[in-house]
């Protein structure tokens, strides 16, 4: 279990991705850094995905709050692994890493850079929250 700070799971996904696929991606990403769903406080994603059934169900199942950002907001975040393909499709070079960092607040750090799965990409950040 983590000792301090807000842990945010950033999620990039194709439209219509099913809950089971997203839950599997989130679980694998958390396991990669020895975290449990209970360690996460927020699922952060692109505003166009936040209201879809898959992301909402994953957040609800785990008790995570959903935070959504526009592509323009995400595009302002400096990330280690930008993608031209994601920029073309989404209007921002990063969704998972940028959303995790932005939701985790100023001075946040990635504890898991983006990890790609067939229908989703996940990144995990730790910070103090946006109000810090």
TrEMBL record:
Pfam families: CbiG_C. InterPro entries: CbiG_hydrolase (IPR052553), CobE/GbiG_C (IPR002750), CobE/GbiG_C_sf (IPR036518). SUPFAM superfamilies: CobE/GbiG C-terminal domain-like. Gene3D superfamilies: CobE/GbiG C-terminal domain (3.30.420.180). GO terms for biological process: cobalamin biosynthetic process. Residues 7-125 form the CobE/GbiG C-terminal domain. This is Cobalamin biosynthesis protein CbiG. It comes from Actinoplanes digitatis.
